Amino acid sequence: MTLDDVDKDIISRAKKIKWLVLDVDGVLTDGKLYFSNNGDEIKAFNSLDGHGIKMLQNSGVTVAIITGRTSKIVQNRTHNLGIKHLIQGREDKLNALEELISAHNVNYEEIAHMGDDYPDLTLIRRVGLGLTAANSHWIVKEYSHWQSQFNGGEGAVREACDLIMLAQNTFDQALASYL
Is 7 assigned a ligand-binding role in the annotation? Predict the structure, then answer.
């Protein structure tokens, strides 16, 4: 990914981002709900997304998760990635975001949110940078500032992390540690 084909307004918005707030189902996962014969929930996460999250956090951007469902799997994945802000089981995502804003002295313009369906619209419409995956609901695509070329659970979050780091000129430094 390069910024050559990215709208200047999106680059300007991405430069200001201090927090990336993510949904889970349909963003960090493919959106499908898998259950074992015992009724246990199973989720698959993309390692590219996970590494992008770690790189973004190392660049100075805080990552948080706000999800309407509650899952021990999500709690474990969040811990695994070093994400310190996890809010689960909250249908009113805007209220949850406002709690984070109040507690951490951040404003809407400094927040990016990546979501895929109606419950994410209130956040996407208020934050500085609304993001979505390629397979998100068409209404969410209409309200988002930027759409990944990848589906949820298949690298969309990684591409969003890269976008923010490229706009903030932290991508090359993050990449240098691997070269």
Answer: no
